[in-house]
Each structure stands twice: as structure tokens, then as C-alpha cells.
């Protein structure tokens, strides 16, 4: 039994990018099929005026309609007459995708270094507050208009990255110099982040003109602007410039992994720590550096949550950082794959609200459907990660001394 299990894990580890995509698509169809059956059966226990009568029972829910709203509703129903590319539903999908790219990259960087950063949510929270406070205070000394936009937006993103990076360096240093388990420390630091930011908000940064727990709003010219003519309307809280930055950062991280000595050392520390140590890689320094970079990406997610979505920092921060863990696992911890996984999560998030408004299916059942899809699609990559960590499958391709692969498969392994 164990040999058969190891054989399956070995095949998953050695699977090419094409085969992994085929497996994920097959898993998606399996999840849709099982979820459709669940929706149809659940409709037999619901009350409705009209439905499908089968053997004396009335089934209230139509699985086809549910999935139509879930997937096509997230895009604004592109098959219907009058569809526009800049519709609000698609903007919501891309907004979620943008934030999840940052969160997924944060988790992926740590995973590649052999570390489990469960604290992206906390890094996002402190980074978002740092962004809001920095922009609000800097706006009083920076001219408004175009100059303010050019200065304050990069300043806010930098503040989020620095504070998030510092908060990520804490568990990195504890891991490197005290051998503290990073899973425990990052989880605990999530709670500490909530407590610290809540205290700072009530002590110093609370908006005096609001009863809600929030900072003062940042100036409108400090919010990420929309693209004229081809962009989405400002009221939908999404900017193509933010998505472009997220994609550029995704490509930059992929390049960092594949083409720099730091990225090579980071990957080697995660996959072959003994070989990395033998090659002169400072394990402690790499641990702190990778967690710092991971935390900085989480802080950038918080910065864009403030600068693009709300225009202020709110105490109730959504679980973007925790969703980033699932995004990274689904992407196989590959920077380029993070974009596709984030888009799927964005579709499910936006489509779920469409299902709730267009059908009578309860939100709990919609949550089960989306959970099934995520579970089925992510499981092959999860077991592939397990196989790479615990099963000795050898190396299909030699590795050059400069960190590059010897064949075409290197690009797929690093980027997918």
C-alpha cells in the first residue's frame, strides 16, 4: 500500500506543467459534477412555488442556473446582449484577483524557502494601517493634484511593504536564531497584529468624524486612479493600474526565483537545505530574508486594500491573507500560477454574491460549492508538495552551478 502511494506521489512530482493543468481541469469538472448533484438533491428539501417534479418530489434548485451565475455572473454575463467589458461584476472579480495575487505571492515566497508563513493576514493588517496613516499625515505637506498622486501612492505602498516586511522578519528571526516553529509564531502574530492595530487606532488614529472603527480617509487624489476611457468607473473600487502592478510584481518574483543568485539560494534552502548549506548559503540569513520579503508582499496587499478599495483603513479586515494560502497551494507555489489561481478565487468570490441575488440557493450551500471546487482543484498540487517534501524521487534534470535548469522543464517548474 505504501509503495503504491509513493508511486502516485512520485508521478505527481514528476508531472509536467501540461499534465498538471489537465489534472486540475479534470478535478474542476469532478467538483462541478458532485456539487451539481448536491445542489439538486438539496432542492428536494427546500420549499418553493415552482420547480422540477420528479417521482412526486419537487426539486427547487437548478444546478445549471447556479453554475451559470457562479461562473458567468462573475464576469457580468458575457453571453447576454448588452454586455460591457467594464461591468461591475468583472471589476469585483479583478479587484479580488489583484489583492490575492499579492497575498498568494507572499505565501509562495515563504513556501519556496521551506517555510510556512501563516501570518500573511497579520502582515497585511499592519501594512494596511501603516499605509493609511502615512498617506493621511503626508498629505498635509505634499501638494495636492497630480503631484500628490505621484508622491503619495508610491509612499503608501512603500510604507505598507516596510512595515509588513518588518512584521514578517520577526518570525523569521525567531525561526533562525531561536528555532521557534514559524507556523506557531506566525499564527500568534496574526492575533497580535489585530490587537496592536486596534489599540493604535483607538489611541491615536481614529477618525474623529466617524463612529466606525477606521482611520481618517486618505485624499481622493491619493487613491489609485482608474485608466481613462478603457478603465473601470471609479465607483467600483478597482483600477487596471493596480492589476498591472500586481502582474508585473508576479513576473518579477518569477524572474527573481529563476535568474538571480538570491532566488536560487532561496529555492535551494527550501528543496535541498543540506546542499544549500554545503554550497555556502547562510541558512539563518536566508530564513530572515525570505520571511522579510514574504511579509513585505503581505504589507503591499494591505496597502492596495487601502489605496484601491476603501480609501481608509478599517478595523474589520477581510481574510485576504488566509485566502492567499489556498491561492499559493493551488498554484503549486509558483509565481505565475498564482495569477491563475487568484483569478479563480476572484471568480468564485464575485460569482457567489451573484448566485445569492439571482437564485434562492442559501449562501451556506454556495459556500459548500466553492469549497468543493477549491478542494478538488488544490488537492493534486497539495499532494505534489507532500511528495516533493517526503518522497525521495530524485531529480529528473541536473542543475547548473549558476542555479538554472539544464532543460526546458526548468521554466515550468519555477513558474507554474
TrEMBL record:
This is ABC transporter permease. It is found in: Cell membrane. It comes from Natrinema zhouii. GO terms for cellular component: plasma membrane. One of its GO terms (molecular function) is transmembrane transporter activity. InterPro entries: ABC_transp_permease. The chain crosses the membrane at residues 21-46, 97-118, 124-142, 149-170, 182-203, 238-258, 288-308, 320-345, 365-383. Its main location: membrane. The keyword Protein transport does not apply. Keywords: Cell membrane, Membrane, Transmembrane, Transmembrane helix. The keyword Transmembrane applies. PANTHER family: ABC TRANSPORTER, PERMEASE PROTEIN (PTHR47089), GUANOSINE ABC TRANSPORTER PERMEASE PROTEIN NUPP (PTHR47089:SF1). It is a multi-pass membrane protein.
